[in-house]
Amino acid sequence: MHRLVLAAAALLAASASPVLADPTGWRATALAGLERTDGAPGSGASDGFYYGGQLGYDWQLGPVIAGVEGDLGGSSANQIVGTRRANQGVFASAAVRLAVPVTSGLRGFVRGGYAYHEVTYDTGSAFHGSGWTVGGGGEVDVTQRLFVRAEYRFSDYGRTVRGQQFLGGVGLRF
Fold first, then answer.
1. What is the DSSP letter of 39?
2. pLDDT at position 39, please?
């Protein structure tokens, strides 16, 4: 799945004509892709479909675009941990990002910041973990306001819960 997202982004980048969009200001993005969470390292990770949304703001700082972004999402993943079924619940992050233009209409970026994740168990208990996230990817302008995005994230939510996400998204600048 993650190879498909990255291949689609590469194809769009190769075929995109220069759009000359202004990549600064507010943006909103719908995100989806593969989510893999390892709730107990060594017990095997569970894969699921990630879905969510993101809101961000970018500033032009010379040749670099700096920004902040926050997102909220969920996942269809679940796994058996011991005798309990763990359902991946809410994912949230608040991150800073740095982007650089690769070509006209194509940017590469890195991001990092705070991450939160909730896992609910069929016994009624829940895990609320917070930690950090890092990642990177690329964006391609489709029109002056519309762009597509592909990214990879790694997150550590503390107490042995870690996750990876291979995401694609469609965004709008306003």
1. S
2. 64
